């Protein structure tokens, strides 16, 4: 019994640990987690430049408000092409669902747009939001009350940021005459769209399906379907809207398997591109349950559109596979024609049952989100798979994903956490973690320490940014630590506040120093004692591997230990790991140092050829990430 119980306990813990393993964690942002990606590059050299814009969610409907502590993990996130986090907007949006998160052009500048979902109790009806490159809210656009809540499918900013088209849903009670049941009534949820003024939120145009799309077009209900109360039959399920220069609207309705062009002049349907037999076009393809229909080009009688097709087709009949399509429509001929220009097949040959999108990139590559599990792919113009990635977790989904270049300049300072470790006064090291949520082009960080609060900062080293969070290790007990984030071109982009270094419970950690508990060192004093060379002359991180035999191998081992424990912290996360790390580190260090009688030479000088002798090089962490 006891053993069984223990096993069960262990198993449960393993499960709990495991289920946490799909999220990154950070020393500097302990409240934030971020979903991890698995990546697979087939042709790294051919993918287009840019960041991934994704917004993971756990449940498509808003979650019930909870008073339980929850780490920030859903909402808008920017990743680089290595799956490293660049920005988490989860804290900014308080873990609420966000959709259609992407960059847009507004007054010829790059902005971010997204949909903040309505909340569960209905106190907030959702917004289309525009953020500037500082992640500050530039516009928060509500939908006029009589048009319902702000729908999560589409927030499509047009015309260099003048207006946006959005989808909407409204309900009405109708009689079922169209289905030959004039005596019966049902609630019907119809699909519509609105064009909104970005600056005033005024409704510039509104259209709904009720007058234009008869009930019989739905493939989701039949003449014998049961009547429903509000909100009722979702008979068209509108899921995308776009507009061309002629002022006409392209809409996609998933439950009619049809893409429509709606006249901006009269609101009537100009043509139907049907997936299954109701098409106004002679076409060489079928589709169904499509998403994200967008104009690629549109002028005169020639239109090129892209969309995501859930289903299989006649060309690949044996493969029930979703694909993104680019099709060309010619409306000047009789009959009008539609033909496939490009097809991009889901690399795992699977089916995207719900949601997803496709985005034609500037270099004509195609970027597709297959939705479930955050699955994304990039294709060459010929349809060759260049890259695919998905969340390591199947707990999270993502409706649409986009790729684009972006320069993010947060207004908050870089975050920093410094801690000191050691078993006696000869082997103290200060470990600094730094991150700067949303900063896109930091090349490296410069670290500073002070002898006391009011002393001048002394440069103690620099290290290239290698991940969302970057670690730096300085020899000795450094305090009043701060960091500068530096751009490639050398200019300082931002400076952190001055942080005190966290100290362990020295006695509990087994500190063996002879002269009382450790005290912060004077960084300038130390470096001048070592020969007076300016402490500003620190080394180049790329020279890490050039450490020669004169550098203590033991120092490197210690740094490696720290780095690998750091990796552990990142993967298992949480307070527990930190405590574990502290305990394990002091334990390991104490016994290791005792056994080996190891001594660190503080600020050991490493001679390099072209450079002046440089301090502290051996103290930079190995880049194990
Ligand atoms: C955007 O750029 C175009 C082309 O350079 C220019 O004609 C237009 O006036 C600009 N618009 C705004 C709002 O700055
Ligand atoms: C920091 O590192 C860069 C290169 O990585 C190097 O050029 C520079 O001299 C270092 N120190 C300072 C103070 O910028
Ligand atoms: C998984 C899924 O929804 N598949 C649908 C894709 O479209 C075809 C054709 O309409 C449907 O038959 C499938 O059910």
From TrEMBL:
Q: Where is the signal peptide?
A: 1-16
- Domain of life where this protein originates: Eukaryota
- Region (Disordered) residue spans: 517-549
* InterPro entries recorded: Arylsulfate_ST (IPR053143), ASST-like (IPR039535), Quinoprotein_ADH-like_sf (IPR011047)
Q: What keywords appear on the UniProt entry?
A: Membrane, Signal, Transmembrane, Transmembrane helix
Q: Which SUPFAM superfamilies match?
A: Quinoprotein alcohol dehydrogenase-like (SSF50998)
Which Pfam families does its entry note? Arylsulfotran_2
Q: List compositional bias (Low complexity) regions by residue number.
A: 524-539
Please give the start and end residues of each transmembrane region. 572-595
Name of the protein this chain belongs to: ASST-domain-containing protein
Q: Which organism is this entry from? A: Penicillium frequentans
Q: Taxonomic classification, please?
A: Eukaryota, Fungi, Dikarya, Ascomycota, Pezizomycotina
């Amino acid at each position: 019994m006891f053993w069984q119980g223990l096993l069960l306990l262990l198993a449960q813990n393993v499960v709990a640990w495991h289920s946490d393993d799909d999220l990154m964690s950070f020393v500097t942002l302990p409240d934030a987690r971020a979903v991890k990606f698995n990546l697979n590059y087939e042709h790294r050299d051919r993918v287009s430049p840019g960041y991934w814009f994704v917004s993971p969610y756990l449940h498509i409907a808003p979650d019930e408000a909870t008073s339980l502590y929850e780490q920030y993990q859903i909402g808008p996130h920017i990743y680089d092409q290595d799956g490293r986090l660049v920005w988490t907007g989860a804290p900014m949006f308080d873990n609420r669902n966000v959709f259609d998160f992407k960059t847009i052009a507004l007054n010829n500048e790059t902005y971010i747009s997204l949909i903040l979902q309505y909340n569960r109790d209905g106190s907030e009806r959702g917004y289309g939001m525009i953020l500037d490159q500082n992640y500050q809210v530039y516009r928060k656009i509500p939908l006029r009350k009589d048009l319902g809540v702000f729908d999560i499918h589409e927030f499509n900013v047009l015309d260099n940021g003048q207006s946006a088209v959005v989808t909407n849903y409204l309900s009405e009670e109708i009689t079922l005459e169209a289905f030959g049941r004039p005596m019966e009534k049902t609630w019907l949820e119809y699909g519509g769209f609105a064009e909104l003024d970005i600056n005033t939120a005024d409704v510039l145009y509104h259209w709904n399906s009720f007058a234009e799309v008869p009930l019989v077009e739905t493939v989701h209900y039949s003449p014998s379907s049961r009547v429903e109360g509000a909100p009722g039959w979702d008979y068209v399920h509108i899921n995308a809207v776009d507009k061309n220069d002629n002022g006409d609207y392209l809409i996609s309705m998933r439950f009619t398997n049809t893409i429509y062009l709606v006249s901006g002049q009269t609101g009537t349907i100009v043509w139907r591109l049907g997936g299954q037999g109701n098409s106004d076009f002679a076409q060489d393809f079928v589709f169904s349950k499509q998403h994200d229909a967008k104009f690629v080009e549109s002028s005169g009688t020639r239109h090129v559109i892209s969309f995501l097709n859930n289903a299989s087709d006649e060309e690949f009949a044996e493969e029930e596979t979703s694909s993104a399509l680019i099709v060309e429509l010619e409306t000047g001929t009789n009959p009008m024609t539609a033909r496939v220009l490009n097809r991009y097949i889901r690399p795992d040959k699977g089916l995207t049952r719900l949601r997803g999108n496709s985005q034609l990139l500037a270099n004509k590559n195609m970027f597709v989100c297959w939705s479930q599990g955050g699955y994304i792919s990039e294709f060459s113009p010929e349809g060759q798979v260049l890259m695919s990635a998905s969340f390591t977790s199947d707990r999270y989904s993502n409706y649409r994903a986009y790729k684009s270049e972006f320069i993010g300049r947060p207004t908050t300072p870089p975050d920093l956490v410094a801690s000191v470790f050691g078993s006696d006064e000869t082997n103290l090291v200060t470990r600094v973690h730094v991150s700067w949520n949303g900063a896109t082009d930091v090349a490296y960080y410069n670290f500073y320490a002070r002898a006391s609060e009011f002393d001048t900062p002394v440069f103690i080293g620099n290290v290239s940014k290698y991940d969302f969070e970057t670690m730096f290790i300085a020899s000795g007990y450094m305090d009043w630590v701060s960091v500068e984030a530096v751009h490639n071109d050398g200019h300082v982009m931002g400076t952190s506040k001055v942080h005190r270094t966290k100290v362990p419970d020295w006695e509990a950690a087994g500190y063996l120093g002879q002269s009382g508990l450790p005290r912060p060192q004077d960084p300038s004093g130390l470096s001048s004692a070592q020969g007076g060379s300016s402490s500003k002359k620190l080394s180049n991180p790329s020279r890490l591997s050039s450490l020669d035999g004169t550098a203590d191998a033991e120092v490197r081992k210690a740094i490696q230990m720290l780095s690998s424990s750091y990796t552990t912290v990142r993967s298992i996360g949480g307070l527990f790991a930190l405590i574990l790390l502290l305990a394990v580190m002091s334990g390991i260090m104490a016994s290791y140092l005792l056994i080996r009688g190891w001594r660190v030479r503080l600020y050991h000088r490493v001679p390099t050829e072209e450079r002046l002798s440089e301090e502290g090089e051996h103290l930079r962490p190995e880049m194990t990430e």
